[in-house]
């Protein structure tokens, strides 16, 4: 019997592609010189889409695939997948929660430390001879003991909070509802949260319900000298307002892993020396990417074996 055809939307490591190729005919759209022609050729037979958090799957794409049975996401965030379309068509969608939580929180804290303590600038200070020529680098800003506000206290937000506890920080959060199993202060809106913190970190999921959640009012509510970190989705933040706040130095520093329009991000960010940038890499350790790939493949295997899906999204 022919192997089911699977459309792979974004680059995956060989340790995932090789075992998948044993069971599926893989159609790697990212290798196609002419994407439209490639899709037109293969779409009629595609039975599964494998995609990534930042790539997703549009209704227009899925519409061209009459045999599509499942969308498996290599990532926890499914905001770029048209979930209403999938629900209407009865297509299951799976993601890779939990396995990436701690690494994403690690990078959030890493970006915070790098931005506050100016670690990239410190590195440059040593390399370019400034240390020998000019002496000590300019003073930086403390992290431990500060007030941190977490926008979105889900799995990743909670992992950030656990790290913040270790840094002796006063922890507050905003979200849809107060959570009664945590000792942190709840604020109904990001703006209310922002007014009383030194550091604001965005951990909310992406999608229509959070688009622009961290708006101009939120950024203006931050006290002067605050630090902003984003490890969720660029869409959650009013990026024009963020750039203005950074350019005017109202926000003293930022650590950003996600942006609008990745990877062709607004070049204005690269001109800001007090911003530490990462290329949407928070889950990008070998250990976590192996676990994500395994979970994504487990979901595919379960589907084609008629077994319950390990991590299906419930819209
Ligand atoms: C990406 C992510 O999926 O999990 C998510 O939602 O955004 C990331 O983990 C990852 O970069 C794979 O490309």
Task: Describe this entry's structure for a reader.
This protein is of the alpha/beta class. It has two domains: 5-97 and 287-305, Rossmann fold; 101-277, NAD(P)-binding Rossmann-like Domain (Rossmann fold). The protein is 36% helix and 17% strand. The protein is built from twelve helices and twelve strands. It has helices at residues 14-23, 35-42, 59-63, 83-89, 101-116, 119-127, 130-134, 155-166, 190-194, 216-221, 239-247, 286-305, and strands at residues 5-8, 25-28, 46-52, 70-74, 93-94, 147-151, 170-174, 185-187, 199-202, 226-230, 251-256, 275-277. It is globular, with a radius of gyration of 21 Å. The two termini are 34 Å apart. 2-keto-D-gluconic acid (8YV) binds at residues 52-54, 74-77, 100, 280, 283.
Short description:
The chain is of the alpha/beta class.
The hetero molecules present are: 2-keto-D-gluconic acid
User: Regarding quaternary structure, how should these chains be classified?
Assistant: single chain
The percent range for strand residues is 15-25%
Largest sheet: 7 strands, parallel
CATH class of the largest domain: Alpha Beta
| Name of the CATH architecture of the largest domain | 3-Layer(aba) Sandwich
Widest sheet: strand ordering: 8-7-6-9-10-11-12
- Overall 3D form: globular
Number of domain modules: 2
Number of strands: 12
Poorly predicted runs of 5 or more residues: none
N- to C-terminal distance: 34 Å
Class inferred from helices and paired strands: alpha/beta
Q: Mean of the pLDDT scores? A: 98
H/E element sequence: EHEHEHEHEHHHEHEEHEHEHEEH
* Radius of gyration from the alpha-carbon trace, in angstroms: 21 Å
The CATH homologous superfamily of the largest domain is called: NAD(P)-binding Rossmann-like Domain
Helix content class: 25-40%
């Amino acid at each position: 019997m022919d192997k089911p055809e699977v459309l792979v939307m974004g680059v995956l490591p060989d340790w995932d592609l090789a075992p998948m190729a044993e069971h599926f005919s893989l159609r790697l759209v990212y290798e196609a010189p002419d994407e439209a022609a490639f899709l037109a050729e293969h779409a009629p037979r595609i039975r599964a889409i494998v995609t990534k958090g930042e790539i997703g799957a549009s209704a227009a794409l899925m519409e061209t695939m009459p045999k599509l049975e499942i969308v498996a996401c290599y990532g926890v965030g499914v905001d770029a997948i048209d979930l209403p379309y999938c629900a209407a068509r009865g297509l299951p969608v799976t993601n890779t929660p939990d396995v990436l939580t701690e690494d994403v929180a690690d990078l959030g804290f890493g970006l915070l430390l790098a931005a506050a303590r100016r670690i990239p600038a410190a590195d440059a200070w040593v390399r370019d001879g400034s240390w020998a020529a000019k002496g000590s680098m300019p003073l930086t800003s403390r992290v431990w003991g500060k007030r941190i506000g977490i926008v979105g206290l889900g799995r990743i937000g909670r992992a950030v909070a656990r790290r913040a506890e270790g840094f002796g920080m006063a922890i507050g959060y905003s979200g849809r509802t107060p959570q009664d199993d945590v000792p942190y202060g709840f604020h109904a809106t990001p703006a209310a949260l922002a007014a009383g913190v030194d550091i604001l970190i965005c951990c909310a999921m992406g999608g229509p319900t959070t688009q622009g959640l961290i708006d101009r009012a939120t950024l203006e509510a931050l006290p002067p000298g605050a630090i902003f970190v984003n490890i969720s989705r660029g869409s959650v933040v009013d990026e024009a307002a963020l750039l203005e706040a950074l350019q005017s130095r109202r926000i003293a520093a930022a650590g950003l892993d996600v942006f609008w329009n990745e990877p062709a991000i607004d070049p204005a960010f690269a001109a800001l020396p007090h911003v530490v940038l990462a290329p949407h890499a928070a889950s990008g350790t070998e250990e976590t990417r192996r676990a994500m790939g395994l979970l994504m493949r487990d979901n595919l295997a379960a589907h084609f074996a008629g077994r319950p899906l390990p991590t299906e999204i419930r819209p």
